[in-house]
């Protein structure tokens, strides 16, 4: 569906995207995971035609996507990082403006506005000014405004920044439903939980480069360990930490330790050691590694840096 | 105290990183005082008006009339026009019947006619005629003052001729010649000098009225009083005779332009709100081009501008009796074209600047300069020649010109067309630059 070939974008001396190549198939829920300043928004703006790349090309269903040809962008919907709404207008008036820009009108537009407001649980506030909405409600409306023209590909640029858990869930469920109905979604975020929950495929981006690409399982296989074990950081576990160096890496995170065994080290060896030190099994939690760990492994820094 | 100093240091750091703020603080004041100084003629030796177009029709063959014409040509306040271009492009001397049409076309607003009978045997004194289009009160009073001063400084010889003419009418030419001969002989005998030379002076009307020192520029009160009684100046107003509220009508164009410019440059900064709130991202990700955003703002600005001007003129009608109802069509056209030029200017400011603060600062600077140079505060004719030429590059000048044509001179559509064309041209050219900038610049902040 969408293809990016060797895309480079610079802002003066800063290279925001450095030779990025990517293919996204129809029906995918593709996540772009990276910290702030990684190049996610730049990539989104190039796909949305807001900016032109310095090198490389983009195609959508085989047709070139250029900043100069607005008609090619009819198949796209962009949910901007900002709440791009007119605060003095009502929810309905906002949606009407953005729908009309796509040539919608009459009963079609009315129906789509009704559907969107219903789906996002905003129907009862349709005539209220947007400035009276909570941040979460504005975010939900921000998404509806991008879907009125029924795009084939939805670009969500960090659409849940500053959103309360209730609104976030509503947004997730809405997007998952749309994806099940066939909408292709590109979703940029720096929250690994969001990428983990929503995305069928994830690209890990940092410093303008895609460092890894694949499904969650494929990505986690890139880690040199399959499980990580957490346990409290207190006097009782200090002796254990001192003896774990040969079996894997131990990191202290706030009030706990995180142990990642080296390749080939069996978990039974770890538990034998804990038993020999008289530490009860309930202190230890074994879990699958996270994208955070993968990001750290790939880039040497955390997603929050 | 340390906290305050930390905050002050932070303010200085942010201030010096804001190029617009720095230039507004250090460069703009210099530019403003230079321009305002130029406009008001500070440091000029002669701070009076200069180069005001004055048409002179000299229908008299009297040598003293030619001397008056020469004196007017030497007066720096005036640029004397004595010829006109005929339909076949040939140049010929102005005639009195040419004046009114040319003045209605605004080729000049003041004219002096020295008629063939400037000196007549029927009455003592001189007969002169001043045509005026008193569109600007200050300018009209100033021109009348300078014109009368120049005339009075140069009329003594003409007055002498008038006395001789009246004498000839009473006692006949022979007895007049005999009287002059006798008078010249007596003067030569009593005070010395050549009787023939004195006779020549007497016959040319040179009785020595104007030979006291300083007379050319400052005739004394008694002299002026005499001349005022002896010089009959007929005034002819060419345009604006029927204007019901002359004072308000003269200045309403200037008000309108200042009001419109400030209002619309403020509206243009609304573009920054849409940019900063990601609305450009949303709109431009759809089937919308950058220039369409700017043109939509332009149309909105023109509509609001026309509405604002309508309110202004209705207010002028209610409060000051400005005759709006008899000029509705032309006035509406002028409002559309003036609002278009002003809105285009607002769009250009928005496309050249990167923040609402910078846009507001630049707009204030340019508006002040355009209003000063364009004549919204001060008659253009009082400015040095350079600024008079510069004023014609400002939309304020042409918009005021247009409003005056409509409200003061009751101009027809055809008469108004050149001014509308210039305003339309300004609007298109400025919008062209704004669209070009907006299409190529970084509009995402």
Task: Tell how many strands the DSSP assignment of chain B holds.
Answer: 7
Quaternary class? heterodimer
Number of domains of chain A: 2
Strand arrangement, major sheet of chain B: 2-1-5-6-7
Q: How helical, in percent, are the residues of chain B?
A: 55-70%
Task: Please give the radius of gyration of chain A in angstroms.
Answer: 23 Å
Helix content of chain A: 25-40%
- Widest sheet, order of strands of chain A: 6-7-8-3-9-10
Structural class, judged by helices and strands of chain A?
alpha/beta
Biggest sheet of chain A, open or closed, and with what strands and sense?
Answer: 6 strands, mixed
Number of domains of chain B: 2
Query: What do the pLDDT scores of chain A average to?
Result: 86
Uncertain spans of chain A: none
The sequence of SSEs of chain B as H and E is HHHEHEEEHEEHHHHHEHHHHHHHHH
Write the H/E string of chain A, N to C. EEEHEEEHHHEHEHEEHEHEEHEH
| Gross CATH architecture of the largest domain in chain A | 3-Layer(aba) Sandwich
Measured between the Cα atoms of the first and last residue of chain B, the distance is 36 Å
Greatest contact between two chains: A-B, 27 and 15 residues
Low-confidence stretches of chain B: 210-223
Q: Give the overall form of chain A.
A: globular
Notes on the structure:
The complex is a heterodimer of chains A (305) and B (445). Chain A is an alpha/beta fold and 305 residues long. Chain A has helices at residues 40-47, 91-101, 106-119, 135-144, 165-180, 192-198, 216-220, 238-244, 267-276, 291-299, and strands spanning 2-11, 14-24, 29-33, 55-60, 63-64, 76-79, 153-157, 184-189, 201-206, 209-214, 228-232, 248-253, 256-261, 285-287. Chain A has two domains: 2-220, Rossmann fold (3-Layer(aba) Sandwich), CATH 3.40.50.300; 228-288. In chain A, strands 6-7-8-3-9-10 form a six-stranded mixed sheet, with helices on both faces. In chain A, α4 (135-144) runs parallel beside α5. Chain B is of the alpha/beta class. A five-stranded mixed sheet of chain B has the order 2-1-5-6-7, sandwiched between helices. In chain B, strands 3-4 form a two-stranded antiparallel ribbon. In chain B, a hairpin with a 5-residue loop joins β3 (83-85) and β4 (91-93). The longest helix of chain B is centred in the C-terminal third of the chain and has 31 residues, at 290-320. Classes of the chains: A alpha/beta (305), B alpha/beta (445).
């Amino acid at each position: 569906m969408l293809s990016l070939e060797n895309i480079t974008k610079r802002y003066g001396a800063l290279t925001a995207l450095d030779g990025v190549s990517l293919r996204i198939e129809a029906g995918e829920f593709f996540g772009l995971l990276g910290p702030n300043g990684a190049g996610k928004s730049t990539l989104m703006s190039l796909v949305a035609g807001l900016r032109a790349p310095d090198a490389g090309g983009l195609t959508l269903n085989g047709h070139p996507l250029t900043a100069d040809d607005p008609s090619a962008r009819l198949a796209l919907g962009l949910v901007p990082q900002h709440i791009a709404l007119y605060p003095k207008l009502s929810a309905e008036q906002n949606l009407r403006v953005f729908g009309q820009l796509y040539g919608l009108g009459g009963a079609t537009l009315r129906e789509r506005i009704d559907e969107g407001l219903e789906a996002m649980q905003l129907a009862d506030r349709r005539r209220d000014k947007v400035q009276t909405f909570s941040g979460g409600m504005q975010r939900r409306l921000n998404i509806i405004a991008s879907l009125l023209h029924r795009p084939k590909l939805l670009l969500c640029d960090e659409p849940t920044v500053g959103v309360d858990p209730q609104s976030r869930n509503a947004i997730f469920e809405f997007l998952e439903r749309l994806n099940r109905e066939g909408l292709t979604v590109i979703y940029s975020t720096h929250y690994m939980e969001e990428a983990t929950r929503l995305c069928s495929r994830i690209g890990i981006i940092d410093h303008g480069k895609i460092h890894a690409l694949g499904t969650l399982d494929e990505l986690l296989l890139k880690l040199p360990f399959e499980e990580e074990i957490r346990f409290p950081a207190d006097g009782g576990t200090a002796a254990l930490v001192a003896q774990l160096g040969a079996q894997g890496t131990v990191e202290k995170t706030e009030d706990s330790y995180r142990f990642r065994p080296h390749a080939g080290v069996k978990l039974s060896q770890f538990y034998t050691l804990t038993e020999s030190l008289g530490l009860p099994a309930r202190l230890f939690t074994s879990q699958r590694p996270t994208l955070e760990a993968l990001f750290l492994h790939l880039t040497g820094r955390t997603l929050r840096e | 105290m340390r906290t305050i100093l930390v905050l002050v240091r932070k303010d200085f750091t942010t201030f010096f990183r804001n190029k617009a703020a720095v230039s507004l603080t250090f460069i703009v004041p210099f530019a403003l005082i230079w321009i305002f100084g130029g406009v008001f003629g500070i440091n000029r030796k002669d701070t009076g008006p200069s180069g005001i177009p004055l048409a002179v029709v000299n229908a008299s063959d009297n040598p003293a009339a030619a001397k008056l014409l020469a004196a007017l040509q030497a007066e720096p306040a005036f640029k004397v026009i004595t010829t006109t271009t005929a339909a076949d492009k040939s140049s010929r001397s102005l005639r009195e019947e040419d004046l009114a049409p040319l003045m209605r076309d605004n080729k000049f607003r003041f004219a002096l006619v020295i008629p063939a009978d400037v000196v007549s045997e029927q009455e003592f004194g001189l007969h002169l005629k001043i045509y005026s289009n008193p569109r600007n009160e200050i300018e009209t009073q100033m021109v009348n003052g300078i014109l009368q001063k120049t005339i009075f400084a140069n009329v003594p010889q003409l007055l002498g001729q008038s006395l001789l003419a009246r004498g000839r009418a009473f006692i006949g030419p022979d007895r007049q010649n005999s009287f002059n001969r006798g008078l010249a002989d007596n003067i030569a005998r009593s005070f010395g000098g050549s009787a023939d030379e004195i006779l020549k002076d007497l016959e040319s009307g040179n009785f020595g009225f104007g030979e006291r020192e300083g007379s050319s520029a400052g005739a004394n009160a008694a002299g002026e009083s005499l001349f005022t009684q002896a010089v009959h100046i007929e005034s002819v107003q060419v345009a604006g005779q029927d204007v019901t509220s002359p004072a308000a009508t003269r200045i309403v164009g200037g008000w309108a332009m200042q009001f419109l410019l400030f209002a619309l440059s403020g509206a243009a900064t609304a573009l920054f709100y849409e940019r900063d709130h990601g609305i450009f991202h949303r709109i431009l990700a759809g089937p919308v081009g950058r220039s369409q955003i700017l043109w939509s703002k332009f149309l909105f600005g023109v509509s609001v501008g026309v509405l604002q001007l309508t309110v202004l003129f209705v207010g002028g009608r209610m409060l000051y009796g400005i005759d709006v109802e008899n000029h509705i069509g032309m006035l509406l056209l002028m409002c559309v074209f003036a609002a278009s030029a002003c809105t285009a200017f607002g769009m250009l400011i928005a496309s050249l600047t990167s923040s609402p603060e910078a846009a507001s600062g630049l707009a204030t600077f340019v508006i002040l300069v355009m209003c000063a140079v364009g004549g919204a505060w001060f008659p253009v004719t009082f400015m040095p020649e350079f600024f008079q030429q510069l004023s014609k590059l400002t939309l304020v000048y042409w918009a005021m010109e247009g409003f005056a044509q409509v409200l003061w001179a009751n101009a027809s559509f055809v008469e108004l067309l050149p001014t509308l064309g210039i305003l339309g041209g300004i609007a298109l050219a400025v919008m062209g630059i704004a669209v070009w900038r907006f299409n190529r610049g970084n509009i995402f902040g």
